[in-house]
From TrEMBL:
NCBIfam families linked: pseudouridine synthase
Gene Ontology biological process: enzyme-directed rRNA pseudouridine synthesis
Record-annotated RNA-binding S4 domain positions: 1-61
Pfam families registered for this protein in UniProt: PseudoU_synth_2 (PF00849), S4 (PF01479)
The protein's name in its UniProt record: Pseudouridine synthase
GO cellular component, as recorded: cytosol
Length: 235
């Protein structure tokens, strides 16, 4: 791997910034100063240092984002995407959203370049539960809870959803728990119960919980404990 790619992938800076660091003699490979950004390195055996601090290569990147409304959960679109919100150092790393949120839905989006993990989280066979907070236009009833327990038939796909869970917080607020991600699924399940969703936010994916300190549009890398939570889905 080229040394400039190695360093940019570890989050040290963009490729342009990394080239400046190399030009200024700040990068060492096996205690020798790197002279060219094209120098090849072995990420498994070489010792790479930046400002005399060893840099460990990260094969996979995991970002937690609090997605705002009017942003698309895609890598490319005519509208603003979650990728457009990322700093330059995360661009061009094949990062993508693991699952989609509707344009007008807020909340947790996991962004990664780990395709296997994304597949496992999204697969209904894995039964990874997603939790949502919803506000609706009509009073929620006990009968709605029973409808979710049975699963709800989606006409467009001719598909019966897996049993879900509806937890009523107040007359017009609830938590919704589902293990799939069909198009507008939460909204359609609630509409089946006679309710229109006025506001929707995803709070968690499995045991990965949205950091309440993240403002809308903000993101951060997962910490060590959160990465361990995700590792169980890669088994």
């Amino acid at each position: 791997m080229r040394i400039d790619k190695y360093l940019s992938n570890t989050g040290i800076g963009s490729r342009k910034e990394v080239k400046e660091y190399i030009k200024n003699g700040l990068v060492l490979v096996n205690d020798k100063t790197v002279l060219k950004p094209t120098q090849q390195v072995d990420e498994n055996n070489d010792i790479i240092k930046f400002k005399n601090k060893e840099i460990i290569f990260k094969k996979y990147i995991y970002l937690m984002m609090n997605k705002p409304q009017n942003v698309i959960s895609a890598t490319k679109d005519y509208n603003k995407t979650v990728i457009d919100l990322l700093e330059e150092r995360y661009q061009n790393k094949e990062i993508f959203p693991a699952g989609r949120l509707d344009k007008d839905t807020e909340g947790l989006v996991l962004l990664t370049n780990d395709g296997k993990l994304a597949h496992n989280i999204l697969s209904p066979k894995r039964k990874v539960e997603k939790k949502y907070y919803a506000k609706v236009d009509k009073k929620l009833e006990e009968a709605d809870i029973e409808e979710f327990k049975k699963g709800i038939f989606l006409d467009k796909e001719q598909y019966m959803t897996l049993p879900g869970k509806l937890e009523i917080i107040s007359d017009y607020e609830c938590y919704v728990y589902i293990m799939e991600g069909k198009y507008h699924q939460v909204k359609r399940m609630l509409k089946h119960c006679g309710k229109e969703v006025l506001y929707l936010k995803r709070l968690s994916i499995g045991e990965l919980v949205l950091d309440e300190n993240l403002e809308l549009g903000e993101y951060r890398e997962l910490n060590e404990n959160e990465i361990k939570i995700l590792e169980k889905y890669n088994k």
